[in-house]
Write a structure and sequence with these properties.
This protein is an alpha+beta fold. The chain has 17 helices and 23 strands. The protein folds into 2 domains: 232 residues, 4-Layer Sandwich (Glutamine Phosphoribosylpyrophosphate, subunit 1, domain 1), CATH 3.60.20; 178 residues, Rossmann fold, CATH 3.40.50.2020.
Length: 456
């Protein structure tokens, strides 16, 4: 599939109850599986010793009752679901969490994001004699924390001053769970509670999965320390109003999550409403490409008065298709995941709403499928602007040469995908649809304005 890929989900638990910590972690990671499908892992403390289990594959493939049992009595625990971004390996050794043993005991960390000055920091540490065992950014951050002196809050704060990029961290040391969000607030991290136990997660849907409740978002630059005395917050200087990744609202986050006080579902419905206003079309039905574009399609239908119908059925159990490269094989992969519902599309003029176009091949195959199913017209409506620039903050974005929006105009792209018309939502309308007055947005994939300098 051509969709952009997120760079992971993180989870943390401070267990003040008699919960089975392994099951809580498993259910929470399963709820955030959409953020990473390459590997998963859990690290937990059992009597001041760390136990870890991780492997390649989906959460349901990595864990079993036997592998979860050692975590059942953990007081502190973290988990991770990984998508391997460009330049990192799809290997067990790079799968998170990572564990580091130092003079003060163990430290385990799960990380979502990308450190843009990682190579410089890594080389500096290597010159001091530090040995690296993985290609991951969080090994660099763990060594930086370990190199500093003072309390854990002071050591983490010193690391924050050195690191540039995006990161949402969940880490544990004996008797303590710590959450950290980068000063730009690019990646999401939130605090929740189930019973008397506290949780950290990339998305609030993880709390819903275990019957917990969302408390609040972790602020940009905030360090949250959870121990037997409760939750303690330490604020490092944020970078202005923040630069939250707008693509979290467009595509990455699950529909039932709340990010920085904004409902993902409601923001996507607003995107569809505004899209209908700026790009109306005479049609018989409105349909959305499952799953993330469906709320935008609902919004388009409500605003336009055109009935909503399901045109495409998604195979819930398709998972990873193991289809090799090449145009023909990619088309087979799309067909394995999506199937047109002929009764709903035959003879119809369809407004097909999708969240984004990256390379354009998915859109082309979907339009072809709908036409073969008898669609009379297919009008593509995209609930975001053209993706024109690569992301450097944890999204596996193709190079600009492979981003069709960077070198192809709307009319040319419309002809390429075989649609009757094509229109995008503008950037100002997208930001208005998100409606996050609390936080500034990183829109670099759309406008090339990165929130920090990117080293070559």
């Amino acid at each position: 599939m051509e969709k952009l890929k997120e760079a992971c989900a993180v989870f943390g638990l401070f267990n003040n109850d008699d919960f089975d910590a392994g099951q809580i972690a498993y259910q929470s990671l399963f709820a955030m599986q959409h953020r990473g499908q390459d590997g998963a892992g859990i690290a937990g403390a059992v009597q001041n010793e760390v136990v870890i289990h991780k492997d390649l594959g989906l959460v349901s493939e990595v864990f079993s009752d036997d592998s979860l049992r050692p975590f059942s009595n953990s007081r502190v625990l973290i988990g991770h679901a990984r998508y391997a971004t460009g330049g990192t390996s799809r290997s067990v050794i790079d799968t998170q969490p990572l564990v580091l043993h130092g003079l003060g005991g163990f430290m385990a960390m799960a990380h979502n994001g990308t450190i843009v000055n990682n190579q410089q920091l890594r080389m500096s540490l290597q010159k001091e004699g530090v040995l690296f065992h993985t290609n991951t950014d969080n090994e660099t951050m763990m060594h930086l924390i370990n190199h500093h002196s003072g309390s854990i809050e002071e050591k983490v704060a010193a690391m924050v001053k050195q690191v540039r990029g995006s990161y949402a961290l969940a880490l544990i040391i004996p008797g303590c769970l710590i959450g950290v969000r980068d000063p730009w607030g690019i990646r999401p991290l939130c605090l929740g509670k189930v019973g008397d136990s506290f949780m950290l997660a990339s998305e609030s849907c993880a709390f819903n999965a275990v019957g917990g409740q969302f408390i609040r978002d972790i602020e940009p630059g905030e360090i949250v320390v959870i121990n037997g005395q409760g939750v303690h917050s330490y604020q490092t200087p944020p970078q202005g109003k923040g630069h939250f990744c707008v693509f979290e609202y467009v595509y990455f986050a699950r529909n039932d999550s709340v990010l920085d006080s904004v409902s993902v579902y409601e923001s996507r419905v607003r995107m569809g409403r505004l899209l209908s206003q700026v790009a109306p079309v005479d049609a018989d039905i409105v349909a959305g490409v499952p799953e993330s574009a469906v709320p935008a399609a609902y919004g388009y239908a409500r605003e336009s008065g055109i009935p909503y119908e399901q045109a495409l059925m998604k195979n819930t159990y398709s998972g990873r298709t193991f289809i090799t490269g090449g145009q023909k094989n990619r088309e087979v992969s799309v067909r394995m995941k999506l199937t047109p519902i002929r009764k709903n599309v035959e003879g119809k003029r369809i407004v097909l709403v999708d969240d984004s176009i990256v390379r354009g091949t998915n859109s082309m195959y979907i339009v072809q499928m709908l036409r073969r199913a008898g669609a009379k017209e297919v009008h593509m409506r995209i609930a975001s602007p053209p993706v024109q620039f690569p992301c450097h903050f944890g999204i596996n974005t193709p190079s600009a040469q492979r981003l069709v929006g960077a070198h192809m105009g709307v009319d040319e792209l419309c002809r390429m995908i075989g649609a009757d018309s094509l229109a995008y939502l503008g950037l100002d309308d997208l930001i208005n649809a998100v409606g996050n007055d609390k936080r500034g947005m990183c829109c670099a994939c759309f406008n090339g304005k990165y929130p920090m300098e990117i080293p070559e």
